[in-house]
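User: Earlier you gave me the apo prediction for this protein. Now I'd like the version with calcium ion bound, so I can compare the two side by side. Same sequence as before, with the ligand SMILES added.
Assistant: Got it. Here's the input I'm using:
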Amino acid sequence: MTRKQSPWSQRLLRYTTAGFGVLCLLFSGSSSFATDLDMLQLPLASPNLCLACHTQESPSPGDAELNPFGIDFLENGRVWDSNLAQLNSDGDSCLNGVEVGDSDGDGQADGNVEEQSGNPGVVDNCGSADLVDEKTWDALKAMFDGN
Ligand SMILES: [Ca+2]
Ligand SMILES: [Ca+2]
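And here is the structure of the complex with calcium ion:
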């Protein structure tokens, strides 16, 4: 019995190292884990859920292609903020913030908004009413100019 380090402490060290390795594997291998956390960044996730960032409804490791908003989200450091809210990732008529239901990107849903009004990664009409046409706008302007 000349060993200074007991077999017990060596075994403990080995188990701890192995355990840490398994943990890292779990975290790096499970993209759905990351997706769930990413989704929590948005104040409202319904009804688009995974489709807000991905091109498929149920992304899986190795099959999780990102849509334009997903790419911008990734490039923004996987953070939802005012910078991302002011972008129009999919190039339709609505800013990301409007589509997600958090116009200023402060992480709080806009008042009375309970669902995403559009998909920030897909060209859609994002629930907005038709824009006031030019004729109506001229009529409105004339009313104010008259006063
Ligand atoms: Ca948009
Ligand atoms: Ca959209």
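For your comparison, keep in mind: Helices lie at 7-29, 31-41, 68-75, 82-85, 96-100, 134-145.
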